[in-house]
Fold:
Amino acid sequence: MLKLKIYQEDNIWCVEDPAGYVVGCGNTIAEAFKDFGENLEAAIEEYIEDNDLDKFHISAIALRHALLDWLR
Structure:
């Protein structure tokens, strides 16, 4: 399960994962969630396209394979 932090700063809504790796912001909560989803999708695509497996922990490699299977 993905837990998200939702907050408003200077009249801009933000949705952020706890680690802060993916953030989405917008003028409304809906825009912030949409932006978060687009940024998360881009991060997943970048992650699964990275073929330098030597830099990944074994659990990250397993997650990568699971994501690739899910996308097929």
About this structure: The chain has one domain: 5-71.
